[in-house]
Each structure stands twice: as structure tokens, then as C-alpha cells.
């Protein structure tokens, strides 16, 4: 370790810069120039007149974002195509229903209780898999139901829960845009993944 930064202030200052560097490195774009980043950081800290016009900045940010989106979609085109084909075939099954958003569901057990609202908190058991059958999460396997707000989960769940009376058990087939989208979730759910969930709505707890 370097003894260059011996004071608390210098160590904290270095730590801020290091963390910013790690964040940039975690999601860089082609052509990212660290020296120019440092210039912008210095100018901003000193409240100097920006060297790039705001309109040009917005246009540059938009273009870089679009480039990164296009590159990511190209990288994961296989996952998108696989999910699209899976859902197209699945929709042909008589027992599968499809909503306007593209969410597919299958009613395994008919419930007769109250339906949650977006403001509700619910208790559920669930089992989640990728379309190849790999399990990424399961409250059944943990032996412990999960509680969460209806509005605080992925879009596919939020939509489905509001249609499910308490006591229902449904199987959801969730397109990537109603699940974790381009980001994925952790190591188990990759970007643009179509997901399958069995959800049992046990109770509305709030």
C-alpha cells in the first residue's frame, strides 16, 4: 500500500476518486477518456464555465446511451430470440392466456378470495425458473413464504397479482420487458431473460 496518502482527508479524497473509477469501469463506453473525465470533474468541482454546451452534452449522452443499448441488444440477441420463440409457442396452448402487455399465465388453482390492489402487501409462495428449467429462486425450497408490496416487484408480477384472488395459484410466463429487462438480476438471471414463475397467493397482509 502507498504511504502517499497519509491524512484522513487525502485518504477519503482518494477513496471517492477510486470508487468513481470503479463505477466507470463497471459500465464503460467505447471511447471513454479518463483524462477528459478528470477535466470535467475538476471544472465541475471548481464551478468553472462548462467547456461543452448543454445541448451538445444532452445530444452526446443520448447518442452514447443509444450505442450502448444497441451493443447490448446485439450481444444478447440470442436470449431475446429464444424468449420470443418460447412465448410464441407457449401462447398456442389452450390453457395459456395472454394479456395486452404480453404477459402469459396459466391458472393452476382457482382462488375465491379478495384481489390485491397496487397498494396491497401480499404473502406468497413462488418458484422461479428460466425457460430452460433452471431454478433461480424459490420460497418453496426455502420453506418460507415471502411478503412484499404489489407495486414493489417486477411488472409481470404486479400485473398478475391484481388479477389473482387469494387462494389462487398461477403459472406466469414473463417476457423480459416485464421482468428484469436489459439489466438482468444477479448472476442467475441474464439480460433479456424470459422467466417462468409459479405463484401461490396466500394472503393480503396489508
Instruction: Give the N-to-C terminal Cα separation.
Output: 52 Å
CATH architecture classification of the largest domain: Roll
Task: Estimate the helix proportion, in percent.
Answer: 25-40%
H/E series, N to C?
A: HHHHEEEEHEHEE
What is the general shape? elongated
Uncertain segments are none
Instruction: Indicate the radius of gyration in whole angstroms.
Output: 23 Å
* DSSP E strands, number: 7
Number of domains: 2
Instruction: Please give the CATH class of the largest domain.
Output: Alpha Beta
Mean pLDDT: 93
Organism: Glaciecola nitratireducens (strain JCM 12485 / KCTC 12276 / FR1064)
GO molecular function: peptidyl-prolyl cis-trans isomerase activity
Catalytic activity: [protein]-peptidylproline (omega=180) = [protein]-peptidylproline (omega=0)
Enzyme class: isomerase
Task: Lay out the secondary structure.
Layout: H1 8-26, H2 34-45, H3 54-75, H4 77-90, E1 97-98, E2 104-109, E3 121-130, E4 135-138, H5 139-142, E5 146-149, H6 155-161, E6 169-174, E7 195-204
Antiparallel strand pairs: 1-2, 2-6, 3-4, 3-5, 3-7, 6-7
Amino acid at each position: 500500500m502507498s504511504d502517499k496518502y497519509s491524512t484522513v482527508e487525502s485518504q477519503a479524497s482518494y477513496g471517492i476518486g477510486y470508487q468513481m473509477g470503479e463505477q466507470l469501469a463497471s459500465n464503460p463506453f467505447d471511447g471513454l477518456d479518463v483524462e477528459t473525465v478528470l477535466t470535467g470533474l475538476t471544472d465541475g468541482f471548481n464551478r468553472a464555465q462548462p467547456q461543452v454546451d448543454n445541448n451538445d452534452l444532452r445530444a452526446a449522452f443520448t447518442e452514447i446511451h443509444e450505442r450502448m443499448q444497441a451493443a447490448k441488444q446485439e450481444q444478447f440477441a440470442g436470449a431475446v430470440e429464444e424468449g420470443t420463440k418460447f412465448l410464441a409457442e407457449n401462447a398456442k396452448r389452450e390453457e395459456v392466456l395472454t394479456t395486452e402487455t404480453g404477459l402469459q399465465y396459466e391458472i393452476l388453482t382457482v382462488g375465491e378470495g379478495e384481489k390485491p390492489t397496487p397498494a396491497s402487501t401480499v404473502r406468497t409462495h413462488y418458484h422461479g425458473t428460466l425457460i430452460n428449467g433452471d431454478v433461480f429462486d424459490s420460497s418453496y425450497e426455502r420453506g418460507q413464504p415471502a411478503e412484499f408490496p404489489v407495486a414493489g416487484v417486477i411488472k409481470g408480477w404486479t400485473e398478475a397479482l391484481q388479477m389473482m384472488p387469494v387462494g389462487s395459484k398461477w403459472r406466469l410466463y414473463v417476457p423480459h420487458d416485464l421482468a428484469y429487462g436489459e439489466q438482468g438480476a444477479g448472476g442467475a438471471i441474464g439480460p433479456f431473460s424470459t422467466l417462468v414463475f409459479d405463484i401461490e397467493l396466500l394472503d393480503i397482509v396489508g
